[in-house]
Amino acid sequence: MLTAHRSCGIALAEAFDRPPAAYQSLRRGGITGQGTCGAVVAGQLLLGEFLGDPDPTGKVTPALRAAMTRYLARVEAELDRGSSPDLVCNNLTSPHGEFLGPARHGFCTALVGQVAQLVDDTLREHGVAHTATPVTLADGRRYDPTLDLEPAPKTS
């Protein structure tokens, strides 16, 4: 593992340079596993942060309405849910064994990557280009995705 474990919502918040604290509540489908996948909900929140009206009493912006419609349609059509009939966290993850096991971790990591791509595509369709920023890997090295496609191998 190159990076320390993060919940799906926190991983997406960090990927789009948003403060991650509130995204903790998305962990495991709203903590209980009974809610919608935290990655999918994080995608909705990110679109709101980037395309919504900053005035809390403002109306839904046309850009946000269009982006949300597009994002949710793509989630429905493209997101790899495995054998799950819906986007409920427990239904998505239960076929992959232990919650902290490698199969479930791999499934969720891939799902988060798909959601990040859908969010990025949707934002770009609305004129918002987000540049990936460097991250600190589990071993303390910094990885800058704008310079490398793969992090340098660890040398001892």
Automatic annotation (TrEMBL):
This is C-GCAxxG-C-C family protein.
